[in-house]
Every structure is written in C-alpha cells, then in structure tokens.
Amino acid sequence: MHIYKVGGAVRDRLLGRPVSDIDWLVVGATVEDMLAKGYRPVGADFPVFLHPKTGEEYALARTERKSGRGYGGFTFHASPDVTLEEDLIRRDLTINAMAEDETGTVYDPYHGKDDLDQRLLRHVSPAFAEDPLRVLRVARFAARYAPLGFRVADETLELMRQISASGELQALTAERSWKEIERALMEARPQVFFHVLGACGALHELLPELVDDAQALAALDQAAAHEQPLHVRWACLLHGLALASIKAVNQRLKAPRECQELALLTGECLAQGNQALELPPTALLELLQKFDVYRRPQRFEDFITVCEMVVQADGESSYPQAKYLRGAAAATRAVDVRPLVQAGLTGQALGEALKGERLKAVEAYKRS
Ligand code: CTP
User: Fold this and answer.
1) What does the pLDDT read at residue 78?
2) 218 vs 129, 215, 222, 245, CA distance in Å?
3) What is the SS3 assignment for 206?
4) Atom 16 of ligand 1, residue of closest alpha carbon
5) What is the tens place of the pLDDT at every residue in 84-125?
6) Ligand 1 centre and the CA of 96: distance in Å?
7) CA distance 64 to 74
8) On the chain, which terminus has fewer CB atoms closer than 10 Å, C or N?
C-alpha cells in the first residue's frame, strides 16, 4: 500500500500558500485493508475513509466513469490495481493532479508544475467533462489565483464552453453550485469568477440575470476590496436587479437566509438610502422600521455598507448618507419605551404611541 498527499495540499505547498486541509490517496489497498487498519468508511458506496486519529480523508485510488446525467450518474471502480497515474488523470486540473509521497517526492505525470510556473489553469484530460461542477471550480480557482497571474488555458475555456452549451450545468444541484459561488464570492477577486463564467457561457445558464452587468461586478469588487462578509458581497452583486429577479436568484440557488434577506431589502430600499438626506421624517422612519433597526441594528448597518460600496463603485468617494442614516437609527433607538408602559399602554396602542415618539425623534434629528 502506498499513501500520497494529493490535490490542493500539493498545489498550495508548491505555490507557497498555506495548506488548510490535506487529502490523501491510497494506492494498492482494498476496502478490507483499510478497515483492518481502523479507518472509518465515509459512505457505503464511496471508497473514502477517515483516519482513525487525524480524521483526514483517505481515498482509494479509483477510476470514474460517468453513467448518466447529473451528479448521481457516476460509477466508481476502486481496486488495488488502479495506478497513481490512472487516478490522477480523472482529476480536474493539471495543478490539482500532482501527488507527493512521504519523502517529499512529487509525482507529476500531467505536468502540473509546468502549468503552475506558466500560471495556467488547464484540464488534465477529456474526463474533465464528466463533472460539470468543474466549470465553476475552474472559475473559482481563476478568482483565487488571479492576483498571482493565473488564467484559464484556451483549450480548457473551449471545453467549458462546450459543457455550458450542452445544458449539463442545469443538472447541478443548488447546494453544489452555491458552495462554489459562496467560496468564489469570498476570494480576493470574486469578479474574476463571474468574468470566466461569462466568457464560457456558464453565466447565461446559471445566473442569466447578471450577464453583462458590469455595475454588479464593480460593486462586488468594492465589497471584496473592503473585506466585507458574504451577505454584504451577495447584496452588492444583486443590488441592480429587479425585486422579482433577486427573489428568483435567491430561491434558485438556495442562498442562506442572511444573504437572501439583505439582498432583498437592499433591492427594495437602495433608492431611499441614497435619498436619505431629502426623505421626509415619515419615510425615513418607515425605512428604519422596515429593517427593524431596534432589534436588528447590524442588518441596517450592513445595508448602509452595501449602499456605500455601490456608490464607491460608481466613483464617488464620499457618502454622507451613511452618517446621516446611522444618526437617524441611533435617535430612534434612544426612544425609551418605559414611560409609555408606565402610562398603562399595551398592545396596538403601545405600538402606535412608540411609533409616534420615534417619529418625533426623527423630526428632532432632522432639525438638528
Ligand atoms: N477534484 C476533481 N474534481 C472535482 C472535485 C475535486 O478533480 N469536482 C479533485 C482535484 O484533484 C482536487 C481534489 O479532488 O485537487 C480535492 O478536491 P477539493 O478538496 O474539493 O479541492 P482542492 O483542490 O483541495 O481545493 P481547495 O483549496 O479549494 O479546497
């Protein structure tokens, strides 16, 4: 039995980047060999095991054949006679198809090191097309390694074009697609992910709403430059879409609730945010109420950040509305409910009286 480090761990070590998790490949072993050594199987049909102590993943060398459409359509052939080269050839990119043994010797039958040097994301073989998710993976790696000068090889982009045109991307589950999108959004240059998807036609399949939306990418770029969290980046990306489209994208990709919520509220309220200084007190209060700024102050703060990112992407250096909105939020949050309760108000009457006090607070704030 031979054990190798494979995939991202080898790639990132050679790039001098931190290695987070290590994937191991086991050549020349059977399922029984692994169980006898105490490894725990991950799933019934999948030749992957967890190390009894470290919990890291150890996969038996395997060949993969696609037997149908979608992610379920795979048959695996894992056996002790599958060689290292046979396992590596079914992987996505040459830079991900290197292995390293315990002495540090790197096995690189598909010239991943050359492609690392040439800064190329190149597929290993036609087997690339067996998993359409790889179109998104390549775009994500392009975003991650853009600062190092990487680009997608022409022949790989052509293959990605063919996969996109085949309709196979439609078979991806929302969960798998979202995982890639989420990771891509959190990269330093997330806009590259969308450029690559646009260049190969995948954006048209997955997110047609964003095709040729340069403003969306500029706002996302700004959010990434300011190291904003995922939900702020997502709201920046969708800020220019009609509400119905934001809803549709959110649902289609099953984005997490925090992302969905901020994107929708932004779509609904961005214009009011920009007009904050001119809004009459009632409209300003309505905006604050919509965000439930009393119980969810951070959500309103995130909205202000999205507004700031969007105008900065347009070339504006200052956004006085931000300070003004924060001040209005603070003024209404300072309203004390206790005197109203002490006066005996309850239920709807209390709600209305509280709203009246908050309106007075906004009016006073506007005058100040
Ligand atoms: N792999 C693949 N096709 C996929 C997913 C994974 O060929 N659809 C292979 C690649 O060789 C990859 C390895 O499995 O390097 C491990 O995959 P994963 O852990 O998802 O990615 P990493 O390459 O380790 O990259 P990351 O840093 O993004 O985790």
Assistant:
1) 80
2) 31, 5, 6, 19
3) helix
4) 7
5) 999 999 999 999 999 999 999 999 999 999 999 999 999 999
6) 7
7) 7
8) C
The residues that bridge with 3 in the sheet, in sequence order, are: 26
Q: Which atom of ligand 1 is nearest to the CA of 23?
A: 16
Q: How many residues does the chain have?
A: 368
Beta bridge partners, 2, equal 27
pLDDT in tens, 140-177: 999 999 999 999 999 999 999 999 999 999 999 999 99
The pocket around ligand 1, CB under 6 angstroms, is made up of 7-8, 23, 91-92, 96-97, 131, 133-134, 137
Q: How far apart are CA 22 and CA 40, in angstroms?
A: 17
Instruction: List the 106-107 sheet strands across, edge first.
Output: 40-41, 48-50, 57-60, 23-27, 2-6, 99-100, 106-107
CA torsion angle for 125, 127, 129, 135 (degrees, to 10)?
A: -60
Rounded Cα distance, 52 and 30, in Å: 17
At residue 195, what is the residue type?
Answer: H
The Cα–Cα gap between 242 and 249 comes to 11
Instruction: Give, for ligand 1, the residue of 23, 138, 186 to mutate: max count of ligand atoms closer than 8 Å to Cβ.
Output: 23
Q: What is the pTM of this model?
A: 0.93
Q: Which of 22, 92, 140 to mutate to test the pocket of ligand 1 (most atoms within 8 A of CB)?
A: 92
d(CA 278, CA 275): 6
